[in-house]
Amino acid sequence: MGETRDGIRRVVKDMGITHADFFRSVRPLLEGTDHVIRDDGLTLRLGAGRVDIQLGAQGTRTLGNFQLPRTLVELRFQGCAADVIEAFITRFDTRFRRGGG
């Protein structure tokens, strides 16, 4: 996690997901919170701060004969305490975890 001079903490995730899948999967994280959804992401109120989630261009990752979706997702936390950021990232990662096997 990096922090910029203006106090924004930044996390970038390389996700195997389409934009449509992202918006479908993120809905439970938004319930009961103040948020704004945009075509390229969303902003979510976290206590006294907020997180801006920006979706990068939708692309593909090639593994042999397989093509999988790929989207870089940037989370920018502003005005959030470290424990709030950690708790949100844990919820976010759990929500987007994919099972296999």
Task: Please explain how this structure is put together.
This protein is of the alpha+beta class. The protein has one domain: Ribosomal Protein S8, Chain: A, domain 1, CATH 3.30.1370. It contains two helices and six strands, in the order ββαββββα. The chain has a six-stranded antiparallel β-sheet with strand order 1-2-6-5-4-3. The radius of gyration is 14 Å and the shape is elongated.
In short:
This protein has 101 residues and is α+β, with helices and mostly antiparallel strands. It contains 2 helices and 6 strands.
Jot down its keywords:
101 residues; single chain; alpha+beta; six-stranded antiparallel sheet; Ribosomal Protein S8, Chain: A, domain 1; 6 strands
Q: Helical percent range?
A: 25-40%
Strand order of the largest sheet: 1-2-6-5-4-3
Main sheet characteristics: 6 strands, antiparallel
Structural class of the helices, strands and pairings? alpha+beta
Mean pLDDT: 90
What is the helix/strand order?
A: EEHEEEEH
Give the end-to-end Cα distance, rounded to a whole number of Å: 30 Å
SS element count, helices: 2
Shape: elongated
CATH level 3 topology: Ribosomal Protein S8, Chain: A, domain 1
* Overall CATH class: Alpha Beta
Based on DSSP secondary structure assignment, what is the total number of beta strands?
6
Can you tell me the number of structural domains?
1
Please identify, by name, the CATH architecture. Answer: 2-Layer Sandwich
Would you identify the regions where 5 or more consecutive residues have pLDDT less than 50?
none
Proportion of beta-strand residues: over 45%
Our Rg estimate from Cα atoms comes to 14 Å
